[in-house]
Design goal:
By secondary structure, the chain is an all-beta fold. The protein contains no helices and eleven strands.
Length: 113
């Protein structure tokens, strides 16, 4: 059974940084692409970033976070990270770790102005 558990969310001022982590179990982690999505109340879930399974250098970002967020993975720890810098109030959302249609429970990120 696949389990994804996010951590690292919290409250931060605009311009600040947070690093989210997602630890996976129940799957051969190194063979799965990993992604982060986010959602705010009343809106659909939004793609944030993705990292391919074969290379941590093969990454994709939503235009809204490009240049500010960095996704990375540590296959030895079954963990994917999302480093978020220069945070804006509009980054406030629940952030989800996703792979192959499996979703974690999410972690809340709140950016105050």
């Amino acid at each position: 059974q696949v389990h994804l558990v996010e951590s690292g969310g919290g409250l931060v001022q605009a311009g600040g940084s947070l690093r989210l982590s997602c630890t996976a179990s129940g799957l051969s982690f190194s063979t799965y692409a990993m992604a982060w999505f986010r959602q705010t109340p009343g809106k659909e879930r939004e793609f944030v970033a993705r990292v391919s399974w074969w290379s941590g250098d093969n990454t994709y970002y939503a235009d809204s976070v490009k240049g500010r967020f960095t996704i990375s993975r540590d296959n030895a720890k079954n963990t994917v990270y999302l480093q978020m810098n220069s945070l804006k109030p509009e980054d406030t959302a629940v952030y989800y770790c996703v792979t192959n249609n499996y979703w974690g429970p999410g972690t809340q990120v709140t950016v105050s102005s």
